[in-house]
Amino acid sequence: MRITRIVALAAAATLTLGGLAACGESNDGGAAAAGIVNKASKDKKLVIGVKADQPGLGLQTGATYEGFDIEIAKIIAKGLGVEPGGIEWKTTVSLNREPFIQQGQVDLVVATYTINDERKQKVNFAGPYYVAGQDLLVAAASTVTGPEALSGKRVCSATNSTPAKRIKTDYKQIQLVEFDSYSKCINALTGKTVEAVTTDDIILAGYAAQEQYAGKFKVVGKTFSSEPYGIGLKKDDKAGCEKINEILKTAATDGSYKAAWDTSLGKSGKAAPTLDTSKLTNCG
Amino acid sequence: MSATSTMLYDHPGPRARIRNRLLTVGFSLLTAALLWYVYVQFDEKGQWAPALWKPFLKSATWIDFILPGLWGTISAAAVAMVLALAFGVIFSVGRLSAHAAVSVPAGVVVEFCRAVPLLLMIFFLSYGVPFITGAPFPAFWAVVIGLTLYNGSVLAEAFRAGIRAVPAGQSEAGYALGLRKSQVMTHILVPQAARSMLPVIVSQLVVLLKDTALGYIIAYPELLQQGVNVLSANYGNVMQAAIVVAAIYIAINSVLTWFAGWLDRRTTRTGRTTVRIAPVQDLGTAAA
Amino acid sequence: MDIFSQPDVQQAVLTGFAWILKLTGASGVLALVLGVLLAGMRVSPVPVLRGIGTTWVNTFRNTPLTLVVFFCYFGLYTTLSVELSSDLDLNVFWLGVLGLSAYTAAFVCEAIRSGINTVPPGQAEAARAIGLTFGQTLRLVILPQAGRAVVAPLGSILIALTKNATIVGTIGLAESANAMKQLINDNGNVVIPIFLVFAGIFVALLVPTGYLFNWLGNRLAVRR
């Protein structure tokens, strides 16, 4: 019955593995306390939801993350009294940002997160810290000037995303190709099976600025929507939201906002925008 | 090669040898031509560009993306396998129970879990359940529980077939000795069935391991998510990343498949088992 | 449940499941043909054919379907420029069918091969003794008997195929899983009814299919 013993050993090993994995997981979740301001000053720790696959904005580059969203998140954490070492980055995708905030899996979300009324029903927004706009990424030699010029052509965007929905409703003559990540759209653009990729201009700029795409693509530069990027937090955390807006106001004047841009998207050569603090949300 | 298939044809005579040689040459050329075509087309689209492949020579790529992803895959698969085994045993025995109050609900659960695509199940666990419980549902457990319910229900059906394939004389002998129904099940039927189920269980592990790939829809950091989506966002090499990741899956699963075959041959060789069941992996139960 | 009284929601659900059924139908037929051919190759006297069959099975059976479908789109279409239809959705559909068929055929092949093993060796020996060639032995003697033994496993494969069809959503087809994601995204407060409706349709489609194939399998089984 040697075989029985081998199987028993294997089962024991698997159980140990499982136990370890379970331990690794158990301190997730349950993060958000009453308010973000209290939590930050008490624990000196924050869990921040960011994108992992958006170059220039939120990109996991190995053990760490980098991009404009990451820099903004660091500014806010610092304003709340949390050092970069106290930040736990958590990868979010577009679809799970509201649930993550509502369920307390993250304290804040800084992940190309457009402020809109539908989302305001579920979460609170501070910011905006940047106003993006839907734009097109095309081959460097392309003569396309805007979505009107793409009638009957194929344009790629992320499945169920806001840009994809806008194409479906406002530009019905465009053939929309949908994938679950923009990396796949970029691959399709490289392979010339789509004419353009559409989403917010700074996301596109992030891709265009990547080393391997240098000189291959260009952002058309004519936005056809307005996407104010906000910082998501729990709906009832009005105090936290107001505090974050305060931090953003300071950042706009003391040069840290510009520094955040310059170390990330600024590398593409685009000048830093000015943060219009008069447009900040009322944290309703 | 099984005994039967070598009996399907005679030792080739002179004409058959010529024909076989022609077929060999023909198909070899065809395969080579196909591979050449793929190579040339990839070359034309610049997919062999060193910049796209070089990241895989850097240790950081492996340490920061692929190995953590692999760990995510293997840990989820390991926990899910243990749970799926428990689920399978409990529900197969439950479904064979003489009490309708036990067998009917067990049957309903198994049939439901077998019919709902894993993609929908994981999605629901991750986004739907928190609305009922009001508590977050970690991605790891959404993947593990989804895999458990699905693979557990498949195993439950396989176990049930295994238990039923134990010759009736065995349980009759048990009853004749005065054992109760539960004793016959635990002491006689399950041990004999379990022995013949070993290869099936290992094969199901292959299915389970592949299915963890669906975790990427809820951003669970497994091999596909880390290796293809996140890694390629850094280097713009989604195609190359997918090829490397596929190779890793194939390597791991080939070892597991070989292990299943080895177990199968081993259990057969001892000549003690009379129970033989068609391996479950052949039922194409994979959902990913 | 009122969201399911909206016509556009009903339309999304219907379109989603229509794609699933079409994918299953087309891939089911292709996979069966391909699977039988592969099984024939794997038991044939020509080593190269056996090699191709084995490689095929080992490759596709051990790769996640998500990746297989990915390669169909980004490998065959984007890189190799294999375009199967000028219509956007139909092109994705047929690329998806290719992926599903190639993947499922590996399982069909293995099911048939184990079916062949249930045919007693005497049958093949008798066929050879009366002078049948390999092709004739397989076609006239072995496969018809093996076929009866593989009805139930093929039923399981069909069920798996139907569920697997949801994976084609990852290359942009608006099938049921994508429709469900979209609905959950838009109506976060009624997640549970949405899931139950989609799961319910799958159960309604697949549980009877399972019973049908089991019944057929039992009826056709060769008693030995």
Count of structural domains of chain A: 2
How many helices of chain A? The count is 10
Structural class of chain C: mainly alpha
How many beta-strand segments of chain C? 0
CATH topology of the largest domain in chain A: D-Maltodextrin-Binding Protein, domain 2
The CATH architecture of chain C comes to Orthogonal Bundle
Calculate Rg of chain C over CA atoms: 21 Å
Could you list the spans of chain A in which at least 5 consecutive residues all have pLDDT below 50? 6-33
The chain-level mean pLDDT of chain C equals 89
Proper CATH architecture of the largest domain in chain A: 3-Layer(aba) Sandwich
The overall strand count of chain A is 13
What best-fitting shape of chain A do the alpha-carbon axes yield? globular
Q: Just give the CATH class of the largest domain in chain A.
A: Alpha Beta
The largest pleated sheet of chain A is described as:
5 strands, mixed
The percent range for strand residues of chain A is 15-25%
Number of helices of chain C: 9
Structural class of chain A: alpha/beta
What is the CATH topology descriptor of chain C? MetI-like fold
Supply the number of structural domains of chain C.
1
For the termini of chain C, the CA-CA separation is 53 Å
